[in-house]
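Please check this:
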Amino acid sequence: MPHEHNDHCGHESHEHDHNHDSTELGFQDNLYLHIDRQNAVTLNSEGKASDILKPWHERLDENKYIESDADDQLIIRIPFTGSVRLRALLLKSGPGDQTPSKIALFANEPNLDFEDVSDRKPTQEFNVPQGREVGEYAVKTARFSNISGVTLFIPSSQGADTSRIYYLGFLGSWTAAKQQPIITVYEAQANLADHEKIQGMDGTWSAPGL
């Protein structure tokens, strides 16, 4: 039976190292701080979403990861704390044949599960090469503009019984969600004259018509 994990983790420091590799250029628009990590969910996994939603400087750490459980399929639901214009997906997976065969990425599908994923058309798909580094997968930004979350579906591994992911990150821009105005309607003090007394029940008051 697939397991669902809902994370509850605290705030983590946000820093990075100074190894100027190819993905270093993407640090400035890393969306790590704008992921709602407490509400990120993984389906059919050993491990929690927070194990792979790491700060930038921990992207190569292999001590924490998620691995599929009952088979080699995984679903990862990632909500953001505001409105996101996504530019790229960052992924470190494997090793070897535990690497996902591909990633199907869905925009604004917060409740996607294994029962209905086959009926949905992915917003974009990526093939995943084997390797030890973090891969950067550019998305078609027009399809991922003004989104509140993404869901990843891994349909299979590259031959192993399970799929494994070490790091998942996102590049793009973030804006705070627009707050709806809150209108509070209240009565400062109940006025008993506004209510009707029920005959024969002294001291008991009821709204008119009851």
User: Anything to note?
Assistant: The chain has one domain: 4-182.
